[in-house]
Design a protein that fits this description.
Structural class: alpha+beta
Shape: elongated
Largest sheet: 5 strands, mixed, barrel
Strand order of the largest sheet: 1-2-3-5-4
Distance between the termini: 32 Å
Radius of gyration: 27 Å
Number of helices: 10
Helix content: 25-40%
Oligomer: single chain
């Protein structure tokens, strides 16, 4: 409930039934684990082995005990080494044979935790999905004025003469062949809300294939296709390090278009020309039937609070910029 996400232990890679059974039985019988060391004191290391514990750390399963996942991974080898020395009884492989062997939690070496991106990548590696966030969210403040449509809005795209510019993380790609036998590319991207397939014909594929790196951010410029499901026919892609030099930033003005007359748009252009700058202007016209995005040619503006306030005031709250 609320902000809490619950996943079963078996959802974590390498955590088999015997490991889950051992952990849950100990927790039910002896109470919750009080520390990472307490976990080692009590588990059967034959069932809960190194691979299991590594993925539990990477998934964030120990965050309530210590949320520095790098520190836990660094401590794991020494904890396992001690556990293996204590594991002499063939019928019992928990870290301590009796209560007299118990010692205070050892001090784990402090270290810098993983970056947000590293944590998210480990979550994807260990569980197949991002849990605590999505790497795309970290890019959004930087890129939002360089894309004109998000993945989740692609099905609304109606501007046939205006190429869509969107962005996402490359999750995978594969090579296919045309009827003539020429190689072409099929690429899968995701942002924090949706996934999309992009298709590259042979000429573009030969140019951009060497630039691809799964997990990296790319901008995709092309045409939206809906003939065989939603996809993008990609003309160009731009990696993270290049997009600011290759793409022009824009401001998007979203307008509730129902019932507005032609005079509204002429007067809006006059208003925009009072705020000259480097941002291109995209109009996003929203009504009950469809959303249309179009580029205002020859007008560039400065994105500032005064522009935002003037647009809201002029439209009586029916338009805003972002």
């Amino acid at each position: 409930s609320g902000d809490i996400i619950r996943l079963g232990l078996s959802a974590v890679a390498k955590v088999g039934q015997s490991a889950v059974k051992n952990i849950i039985e100990l927790r039910d019988k002896e109470g919750p684990f009080s520390s990472f060391w307490d976990f080692f004191m009590r588990i059967d290391t034959r069932a809960v082995n190194r691979g299991v514990i590594e993925n539990l750390i990477k998934s964030g399963a120990f965050d309530s005990l210590d949320n520095n996942r790098a520190k836990l991974l660094n401590a794991l080898p020494s904890f396992l080494e001690y556990a293996s020395k204590k594991c002499t009884d063939t019928n019992q492989c928990s870290l301590f044979d009796n209560i007299e062997d118990a010692v205070l939690d050892p001090v784990m070496d402090e270290c810098e935790d993983f970056s947000v991106r590293q944590k998210l990548d480990f979550e994807k590696e260990s569980m197949g999905l991002y849990i605590s966030g999505h790497p795309y969210d970290n890019y959004l403040p930087m890129i939002k004025n360089y894309i004109n449509c998000s993945f989740s809005d692609l099905h609304l795209w109606q501007s046939a003469n205006q190429p869509v510019i969107t962005a996402g993380l490359l999750t995978s790609y594969k090579e296919r062949y045309t009827k003539k036998g020429d190689p072409m590319g099929v690429l899968d991207f995701e942002d924090s809300d949706a996934t999309v397939e992009a298709v590259m014909f042979p000429k573009q594929w030969s140019k951009y294939k060497p630039l691809l790196n799964a997990g990296s951010l790319y901008f995709i410029k092309g045409q939206v296709r809906q003939d065989r499901g939603l996809s993008i026919l990609a003309d160009e892609i731009f990696p993270e390090e290049d997009f600011q030099s290759l793409l022009t930033p824009h401001v998007t003005i979203t307008i509730e278009a129902e019932g507005l007359g032609e005079a509204f748009y002429g007067d809006l252009c006059k208003l925009l020309r009072k705020h000259p700058g480097r941002y291109e202007v995209l109009l996003k016209l929203v009504n009950s039937e469809q959303t249309v995005v179009s580029l205002l040619k020859s007008i560039r503006v400065d994105l500032n609070e005064k522009l935002s306030a003037d647009i809201i005031d002029y439209s009586n709250g029916r338009a805003y910029c972002s």
